[in-house]
Amino acid sequence: MSVVPADVLPGSALAAPENAPGPAELGPRARLWPSLAAVYRAQLSRARVARIPLLFVATFQSIGIMILMRGVVDGGGEARAVVAGASVLVVAFVALNLLAQYFGQLRASGGLDHYATLPVPPAAVVLGAAGAYASFTVPGTVVTAVFGCVLFGLPLAHLWVLVAVIPLAGAALAGLGAALGLLAPRPELATLLGQLGMSAALLLGVLPADRMPEVVRLARDLLPSTYGVEAFARTFGPHPDWAFVLGDLAVCGMVGVVSLAVATWAYRRAAVR
């Protein structure tokens, strides 16, 4: 019997023919914007049926608050603050409160494992969900703003500024809501934090700042939606100072970038656990 080395056998796994193909190349990494668009469309179609009734609740809640405040506030700067705060409150209800609940339940149910297996960047998941939830606030915010202007006799000429206020305030509040939901150890705590955040947006955004104590004003400055409220309220004046409006919108945008970055970090942290 002759002994033949195993590496020269034709069918051996150790054989290394010269024309053997090299290791397979990996496909290109998923790009951010196509992944973001895919997640946004999926979230929008998934949440359309469930979130529309809640949007009506948010709108009627803001309108009811303005009707109650009509008996206390006659006009002037206080009326501008009430209308602007009630309009942004619709954004806070959906983008902050509901998004905190969504990510809290997603983390508790193991839904983050599904997203972790998809070839999409973590930022696309957070931004796509945040954008989908913020999109539901557009009709309610517009209806609330128009109703408030008619109720308090404010001009309707500059309502176009909502084109900037809604996405910027929505990004800031959605990032905060996603971070609260992802960092909360239990879904019940995520729901509680979302409710507290919306209550803060209600008390600190709708009530006129001139009647608040100094400590409460400092807390108001830390709320992301405050700068969207201030930018919108300034446009109701007879001669709006657009430099201050742009400044408030810029601050709101920067806060949105920071909050979404924190939410992305929280998503990575929660997905690997």
Q: Care to describe what's here?
A:
The chain is mostly helical. Helices cover 73% and strands 0% of the residues. The chain is built from 10 helices and no strands. The protein has helices at residues 32-70, 76-108, 111-117, 122-135, 137-152, 162-183, 187-206, 214-222, 225-234, 242-271. Helix 6 (162-183) runs antiparallel to helix 7 (187-206).
Short description:
With 273 residues, the protein is mostly helical.
Question: How many β-strands, per DSSP?
Answer: 0
Summing up helix and strand content along with how strands pair, one would put the structural category as: mainly alpha
Rg, please? Answer: 25 Å
How would the global form be characterised?
A: elongated
Strand content: under 5%
**Rounded mean pLDDT score:** 83
Show unreliable segments: 12-16
* Assembly state of the chains shown: single chain
The N- to C-terminal Cα distance equals: 58 Å
Largest sheet, if any? none
So how many helices? 10
- Give, in order, the helices and strands: HHHHHHHHHH
Helix content: over 70%
Throw out a few tags for this protein.
single chain; 273 residues; mainly alpha; 0% strand; elongated
Give a topology summary.
Elements: H1 32-70, H2 76-108, H3 111-117, H4 122-135, H5 137-152, H6 162-183, H7 187-206, H8 214-222, H9 225-234, H10 242-271
Helix pairs in contact: 1-2, 1-4, 1-5, 2-4, 2-5, 2-6, 2-7, 2-9, 4-6, 4-10, 6-7, 6-9, 6-10, 9-10
